[in-house]
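Problem: given the chain below (105 residues), write out its structure.
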Amino acid sequence: MVVATSPAMTLARDADGNLANRADWTKEIAVQLAMEEGITELTDRHWLVITYMKEQFEAKGDAPSIRKLTKESGVETKELYALFPKGPAKKAAKIAGLPKPKGCI
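Solution.
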């Protein structure tokens, strides 16, 4: 359960609900953001995707799309949807403290 006084609840957000300042991100904040998205536990597979997204953002200036995630992260599409239901790229970017990927609706 996310408590209303949790640090993630008080951080500045953009119009999509993603962190406005990437420097605010910590692993603890990621856990709280995941809980907001209905993900109660971040497993090693979640962290693999989150780390990949952060690395790609640093290298290219944008979070990867679902297609790129599937091709390059080592996590297949079906598993991505199991890890991050109803919008893996969008949810993973949010939990990683990144803006919504440009290709996401």
